[in-house]
Amino acid sequence: MTSTSSVSWNALLAALFLAAGIIVPFLTQSSYFLTIGITAMIFTVFAMSLNIVYGYAGLLSLAQVGFWGVGSYVAALVVTRLGGSIWEGMIAAALVAAAGAILIGAAALRLSNHAFVIVSLCFTLLMQMLAQEWIDLTNGPMGIPGLPAPSIGFGEIDFSFGTPTRFFYLTLAFATVSLGAIWIVVTSRIGKTLRMIKHDETLARSLGVRVTVWKLVAIALASVFAALSGALYVFYVTIVDPLIFDVYFTQVILVIVIIGGLGSFWPVVFSGLLITVLPEILRTPNELRMISYGVILMAAVLLMPTGIAGLAGKARTRRTTPAAASVEVSP
User: Fold this and answer.
1) Contact criterion met (CB below 8 Å) for 251 and 64
2) How is the chain split among helix, strand and coil, in percent rounded to 5?
3) Tell me: the pLDDT tens digits for 212-250?
4) Which residues is 158 bridged to in the sheet?
């Protein structure tokens, strides 16, 4: 696929994604279905944050839920304790998450990639413990309820996103901007460098690539999108509590990324929308949902280890191989 056709293809998919999102509220005003759409878009961005650090940089990070939760709490505290707006809260969430990611990554990457996995898991568990025990700040297990709906002020006019339809469009704008930014990153020099490091770190070092610095860039970027996703999510559900660090969220984004295909973009986006929407449509009980995600994850690893992206690549190869063969044998 040439670069021109690739750009056209990506632009077409982006336009279809945006158009489908715009149309949804015209097709249904059901709060239930709009909530499914809001959750699907937020979790897709959240999963893409894991894809940056795991799919492109090759670092399995179990800290994404930690940053998701930290972003949620920071944004909630900025609004409820400091009197800031949700937008100020989200900016603070992104900055705090990025700073924490750099500190944790700089310490863990001095050891090995395997140590990074353990440190990232410990970070999430530590954040969950702080959320439960630091009652003066987080209100402990009771959490911080009654979070206000996001709003934008135009002079004396205050436009609130307090209805499901308005919040749906706010989430659509967030997902569009976030996924657009991620696409720019992964198709730029940053993404190419991260792929090279993932496939052959020794070769990258021999070429003068500052591997640790680039890994920190990936970790920081991933933490920012995880924190922003978490902040927006809790302002929709109007409460943040220690359950925001639940292992369920880790399981969901892992399933999304692995089924989509590590280091792919549109397959992961499609997987994110599918994996979050399908259980709701099928009305899977909460008790069985984690089991179903586990079964899906194991089946995906065994049956299609390269995910949807790998299957699509094989299909393209099968289509192009006969054409190439016919050209070779033609007089």
Assistant:
1) no
2) 80, 5, 20
3) 999 999 999 999 999 999 999 999 999 999 999 988 888
4) 153
Task: Please report the domains of the chain, with CATH numbers, ordered by start residue.
Answer: 3-325 (1.10.3470)
Q: Please, are residues 242 and 131 in contact by the beta-carbon 8 Å criterion?
A: yes
Q: Report the predicted TM-score, pTM, of the whole model to 2 decimal places.
A: 0.88
The CA distance from 7 to 158, in Å, is: 39
Identity at 24, one-letter amino acid code = V
Within 10 angstroms of residue 299's Cβ, the number of other Cβ atoms is 11
Placement of tokens 């302002």 in the chain:
235
- Rounded Cα–Cα distance for residues 51 and 69 (Å): 18
* Contact in structure between 64 and 220 (CB atoms under 8 Å): no
Q: Tokens standing for 84?
A: 């800031």
Q: Which of 261, 296, 268, 262 lies closest to 282 in space, CA to CA?
A: 296
Query: CA-based diameter of the chain, in Å?
Result: 82
Q: Which of 104, 64, 122 is nearest to 251 (CA)?
A: 64
Mapping DSSP to helix (H, G, I), strand (E, B) and coil, where does residue 248 land?
helix
Burial class (CB in 10 A: 0-12, 13-18, 19+), 325: exposed
pLDDT digits (tens, 9 = 90+) for 152-184: 877 667 788 889 999 999 999 999 999 999 999
